[in-house]
Amino acid sequence: MNAVPFESSSALYYPEIEIHDEGWLRSALCIWDRIYRIVPSTYQPEDSEDIMHALDAGLLEDLHLSVEDTRATADNFIQFLESLPSIPAFLDQPGDFDIRIHPEKIDQKLLPVLEDLANKIDKDGWLNLSPPIANSYMLFLANSVSNRRGIPKVTNDQYMFTTMHFFANDGNIRDFVFDRNAEDASTALIMKLLLPGGLYHIDMKAFIRLRSGQADSREAFRSSIINLSSRISLIEEKSFVPEIIQEFEDGLVQAQEQSLASFGQTIEDAAYSLLSIGLPTALGAISLFSGGEDPFNFSTLGKAALIGAVAAIADVASSRRKNWRSTDAFYFMKLLQTYEIDEDIEFSVPNYGKLMDELIND
């Protein structure tokens, strides 16, 4: 089977405006050519010098919302809430602190509704909302912007990544998240990538110089990743698994070697990064991948990836699996601050299933 082309060389960062983790941004820019962030036209972000260098180089770009963006978000958000038999527990609870949302990010039709829910509206019009409401709305906004521009979403927040699983499946998640008898599940596919070491120590200007000329290796990274996730989302036949995994590993190793060579580094100098991809998968297929083990425990796929179910799909007739597209992908990226290869390294893989269970049932 031919590789599925990666529709976009760019990604959309969510849910915040400012990116405070500069090492994370550098690691993301080893895979994507450009990262977008949603910024109100009347707001000036409080950026560090390194972030400003990324903006000046066009590697980070401010995306200003259109009327169509906020209108689509409001329509989808209202429709989603009205379709639920009851409000999910994670939406119907107060938070320990408020999250501020700029009014430019909200359609006029929805603004009065969120103003009524706001704990405070400050002098500049920012709405102070509880985290469940604010984060849920920002996920819908990111989804609208992503879909309208055909670019995937990427976050450095494991809670946002888990919540996106819920919304990516239109809330079609079972209250009993760990149902082993379900047919389909929302799954996390986790790539163990090797990126240039020292991404937390190099300044942005030096990184930009070293990064130039790497377009081919970044494209190979992206193509390998989306090809694997696209095929896994549809697979139901066990005999294809070894072929798919081997093909992915071969492509990924080649991409990694090209990327590291551009930085003048070797595998021994590299850093591990975990890139999680959310996608729907046949639950039986995950059991095949893992040799019959519990699909809700992450299992190794060859040497380069892990896979595990996050939550069981409630209604298989409403599953997104058959219609899943690579532009539906959403990502969580975490750079492990480990700069020497160690065969005994223990990867800190988030327990997405537990996080989902807490979101819905706590």
Describe this structure in words.
This protein has 362 residues and is of the alpha/beta class. The chain has one domain (1-90, 135-362). It contains eleven helices and twelve strands. It has helices at residues 22-28, 49-56, 67-83, 111-117, 131-149, 158-168, 204-211, 215-234, 241-262, 283-289, 352-361, and strands at 10-13, 34-38, 60-63, 99-101, 120-121, 127-129, 153-155, 184-196, 270-282, 299-301, 305-312, 330-335. The strands form two sheets. It has a nine-stranded mixed β-sheet with strand order 3-2-1-7-12-9-8-11-10, with helices on both faces. Strands 4-6-5 form a three-stranded antiparallel β-sheet. It is globular and about 55 Å long. Mean pLDDT is 84; it is low at 1-6.
- Tell me the count of domains: 1
Number of helices: 11
Biggest sheet record:
9 strands, mixed
Number of strands: 12
Overall pLDDT: 84
Strand content: 15-25%
Stretches where pLDDT is under 50 for at least 5 consecutive residues are 1-6
- Percentage of residues in helical conformation: 25-40%
Distance between the termini: 43 Å
Order of helices and strands: EHEHEHEHEEHEHEHHHEHEEEH
Task: Indicate the structural class.
Answer: alpha/beta
Annotation keywords:
362 residues; alpha/beta; nine-stranded mixed β-sheet; 12 strands; disordered N terminus
SSE arrangement:
Layout (H helix, E strand, L loop, with lengths): L9 E4 L8 H7 L5 E5 L10 H8 L3 E4 L3 H17 L15 E3 L9 H7 L2 E2 L5 E3 L1 H19 L3 E3 L2 H11 L15 E13 L7 H8 L3 H20 L6 H22 L7 E13 H7 L9 E3 L3 E8 L17 E6 L16 H10 L1
Helix pairs in contact: 3-5, 5-6, 6-11, 8-9
